[in-house]
# Entry
Amino acid sequence: MNSAASINNAFDYIVKAHLYDQYPLDWQTIFGNQQPLTVEIGFGNGEYTLELARKHPDRNFVGFETSQSSVSKTLRRMFKEGLTNVRIVMTDGRFGLRNLFDDESVECVILNFPTPWSKGRHFRRRVAVTDFFRTLQLVLTPNGRLELATDVLNYAVDVYKMSKTLGFEPEEMVINGPREIMTRFERKWRHYERNIHTLTVYRGNNEKCDRLLERSVVMPHEKLLETEASIENLYSGLNQSHKSPSGNEICVYKVIYEGREKDTFLIKTIAVDMYDHGEGEFEQHYFIDIYKNNRQWLLKLDPISRPFITPAVKFSIRSLAKTLKKQ
Ligand SMILES: C[S@@+](CC[C@H](N)C(=O)[O-])C[C@H]1O[C@@H](n2cnc3c(N)ncnc32)[C@H](O)[C@@H]1O
# Structure
């Protein structure tokens, strides 16, 4: 897909990871070389990774960012400069790091000024939680490291303590030390005279996480005989949350769009994968197609909005077929 030779426009820097059919991704083919990998999660306007990429043409850089406006600013800059050793993935970096990289293949993971999401309802959105260290154990090279910079003392202290407890090797935290590259948030916090805490943590001896994506993707689909199904059931299942027996897969069917002949339907769906005892969650929005063919109803993912094929996405197709089934 995105090989090094194919950067013809700014969008070629985006790796559409959800469209691949083999995981983890083959970064060697994507970059066209075997240079060591650095990953930044939440790169914002991209200053940090781009400057590293300029300084180290012998290394490859992968940035994760969920904000579209941040990504478009970064893309424009990368394309203008003609950088060849950077790629962007627009998805949750926790999910990306866990599923898109081979075992022991990433030298460095960078977290600059992650949103703190302090304890409470939003704590699940925090990047550096216990589960993250299981992911690091899986993908970091034996001497690999996490580099954190934050203005939030508690975040740095939590990472220090957690990493130590989990068998990683944190160096002493540095406060307001010299920094070669400043990001937008770093400039902002220095302007307000907030302390900047930096911490490097080396991979240790933690347990590894499981991946959510299978190595080879099989597109989920279901079939129901016309006589077995009641299409009216679709409407009764709308906006209700469906949970798998393990509780790890949840989905909600939000909107139904009907074809004129009532033989095709498009179902707007949200699926959430819960993992590591509910500490992590990964949410995706997409459409399911239902259509009639040879006296059967067929259910499959709509190709335009194709999500990552996670357990919750598979569950959403199975559960929809179950909803359609006449009692
Ligand atoms: C406070 S900003 C810091 C941006 C940049 N690192 C800097 O120092 O200027 C946090 C950034 O992380 C992104 N972000 C938050 N959670 C993320 C996640 N799980 N995966 C990828 N990006 C994430 C946000 O969209 C936002 O751009």
